[in-house]
Amino acid sequence: MTRAETRPAPQEFDRVLSSMCTDPHPAARDAAMRFLADNPGDPATYPAVSDLEREAVAMLGDVVGLDDPHGYVGSGGTEANIQAVRAARNLADDDANVVAPESAHFSFQKAADVLDVELRLAELDDDHRADVDHVTDLADDDTAVVVGVAGTTEFGRVDPIPALGDVAEDAGANLHVDAAWGGFVLPFTDHDWDFADAAVDTMTIDPHKMGQAPVPAGGFLARDPETLDALSIRTPYLESDTQPTLGGTRSGAGVAGAHAALDELWRDGYRDQYETSQANADYLASELDDRGYDVVDPVLPLVATELPDREFRALRDDGWRISRTASGELRVVCMPHVTREMLDSFLADLDRSR
Amino acid sequence: MTRAETRPAPQEFDRVLSSMCTDPHPAARDAAMRFLADNPGDPATYPAVSDLEREAVAMLGDVVGLDDPHGYVGSGGTEANIQAVRAARNLADDDANVVAPESAHFSFQKAADVLDVELRLAELDDDHRADVDHVTDLADDDTAVVVGVAGTTEFGRVDPIPALGDVAEDAGANLHVDAAWGGFVLPFTDHDWDFADAAVDTMTIDPHKMGQAPVPAGGFLARDPETLDALSIRTPYLESDTQPTLGGTRSGAGVAGAHAALDELWRDGYRDQYETSQANADYLASELDDRGYDVVDPVLPLVATELPDREFRALRDDGWRISRTASGELRVVCMPHVTREMLDSFLADLDRSR
Lengths: 354, 354
What we know:
2 copies of one chain form a homodimer. By secondary structure, chain A is an alpha/beta fold. The first copy, chain A, has helices at residues 26-34, 47-63, 77-91, 107-115, 132-138, 161-171, 225-229, 252-265, 268-290, 309-317, 340-353, and strands at 70-74, 97-101, 118-122, 143-149, 174-178, 202-204, 218-222, 233-234, 242-243, 295-296, 302-305, 323-324, 330-333. Chains A, B: It is an enzyme of class 4 (lyase).
């Protein structure tokens, strides 16, 4: 190996439209830097960051309508989704299956492979939401968990969570809600999605997405302590007894960053951000519609639109970080770093590419 | 929630003797701060940190005697150990089992639960190393992977890796080496432990332990590309195709920090650190022996010693972060932040506690 000739620079966010992560809030960045070397996975050695984690989980409970939340701050949505399936599988009989909508994040494919459970994918309705009838058809006595998504990765849709809760209850299964991205905007909408709205057992909600915490800060929350018990592994040579997390050593930067972001922004700061992001999404959708593109109405701050391949490639060549849905639509995630000025610059480049 | 009255402080390292993590190297800390918001799990959006990861993996290959390494920088040793077992299980038949020594880290218990495989624990010899005869007895046609530890968590022992490779080969199984902690000191010893020394298939080696990178920076390395293929999940709506990692979003701070530490310290800096840490361990062992304690000879920079409960509690009350093995010994991990002055201060407090 030779030392790199030029020092590589971190990604600037001024052209990032594809990511569900964002530039962290300054208070969160500061806290992350301070706790960079702490390990919340070893609470006896690093008690301060453990205290911050308990407070962060309590604040996450406020966000999701749960008075006495059980959970932790982990590496992200994939870990939390795997853990939800793992807990449900461990609490169920053998041959467990998972029923999730086709819109579920690919981490459920990963969970199925890792955990050796069957993943049954339900069709979507005309508005990209889980088709409850098909979920009902797929669920059976072996179903360990029914998954609903509150803010889908591709189209920002919110599944009918209370109805999915009914299906789960009839099947004797858990209901898991993946609100990894949506969890910090949904409290300011009319959607039914959280522990207070429905019979939700577990939830994924990521501070490092719309919560403006630094990576890695994912949230895994459960209504009942038995869920974490089902995940616990004994831990010799730590001065604590058991560990319910998927990882071992964990990021103090992520935990302290999540705590600082929640402490700073919940609740008014997140509401302001939601309103700004949603207004930006509505604006972009309207501008694209004016140009004749077929746009999917943004019910949350995420715009999906048809876009010919030529324009997509030209925009990437212009330096825009953009990505597509599995069916080919351009998706623009209106994260906190995405400003009206960025969108105008993007639209100007789009107009030049046509 | 009310805002915390006093701002909690990160853990100072001047009394931490229990952790296998450490205060990161300044160059690594600086790189981590710069790349705090980058996500190596989304290489099309964050190409710079992806380039750093490729270089970091290549440098890790140099550390472990592997010319063309396949792998990635993940969340830590637990993830890498789970991934090693998962890859072996996916490449094997049903009813896979894992044979590991009783000294294996508890993450293998976690891997067995998560991956639904049988974990068979082999006895240790008189020097706390895997008993090869018992490993041989436990391995059979269903064994997917044999585990050896190169630097055990409790006693810093190095299993007979080449002999375990022979057992694995006879069983048609992979050989996985857990060098999470030991990987950055073993290159400067006479032990046979790496890809060049034995028929190793996969390895755990954590930059965030003796590698002086910030948390989270774990290393998972494989000799063959098929290993990563066995872990790959398709990734729609990212502009990359597949993802072999256990997590999704990953820490840019960890990847950039690992790169910076390796770039700065491999190879002379790590050798200097090994020599200092080993000298400290030898010194502490000698001082404890002089005081009449039964000390386990430190073959790597980790000292284990009998210590009555009363002294242990008194030292914890003095603010020392210390922990015990499952059989009750005090263990002191001579990490880079552990200086001779710290050890003298610790010994003085020990003397007062007697």
